[in-house]
Amino acid sequence: MRSASSDRAVRRTTSGTADATAPDREDGRVVESEGADDSATNASAATVAERESNAVVTSISGLGPESGARKRTGMSSESRLSSGTNLDTDEPDNEPEVVDRAIVEQRVLRALSRKALSEKEVRSLIAENGLDGSETEDLVARLIDLRYVDDDTLAEELTRRLSEKKGQSKSAVGRALTARGLASDVVSEALSEIDDGEERRVAFQVAEKRAGQMGSLDAQTMERRLSGFLARRGYPGGLVRDIVSEIVRRRPAGSSGPRFR
């Protein structure tokens, strides 16, 4: 049998050994925890780096929101890759542009519903919408057959409106018709309705109306302003002088403005 003193010595030794090993276990737990934290930190850093890398690629390749560019409907980045899209330019490689003729027709008809267009203007509108070749010719021919496009009628209407309602000269009307893309023979035919007598009548009419708004002006100022008014409408100098002189001469002496019978 061991003595009581021996038992106490054994207990002290065992307790000391336990105390000595306890810090080692604690240190082990600390080291293990720190290792886990380092792993989590590294994983988080890798995730951030990956996101930043993806963000840079998105910005460079143009896969982000499109602004002011022609959009490709229903194409994800994966679809673009599989269809041969160049990610640097966001344009397809050798992908033909498909134009829907029905849509182009509707756009042209809407434009014609707003105002009459010449054949040249219609052709330009069709080209702007991407239709060309035989389809353009077919569409233009159809519009002409249905009289949606009629250059002769358009020239007549423009001539009447610009001459009678706007008071423009024959030469000014001719320039306006040409600017609308009307052929020279169509323009000449429309202008044949304006002879010298008709042009003088229109010029005198618009000048007389204008003179009625110059009641407070003296004769010299009125003459100068009326001359400029008619010249801006394209009337020739000789006709302008004759009309202005007649209007000023018919102005009663001492009158503050012209009075016509």
TrEMBL record:
Its main location: cytoplasm. It is found in: Cytoplasm. Residues 88-97 have a biased composition (Acidic residues). Residues 199-243 form the RecX third three-helical domain. Residues 38-48 have a biased composition (Low complexity). One of its GO terms (cellular component) is cytoplasm. Residues 1-18, 74-87 have a biased composition (Polar residues). The keyword Disulfide bond does not apply. The keyword Methyltransferase does not apply. Keywords: Cytoplasm. Residues 1-99 are annotated as: Disordered. One of its GO terms (biological process) is regulation of DNA repair. PANTHER family: REGULATORY PROTEIN RECX FAMILY PROTEIN. HAMAP family: RecX. Modulates RecA activity. Belongs to the RecX family. This is Regulatory protein RecX. It comes from Labedella endophytica.
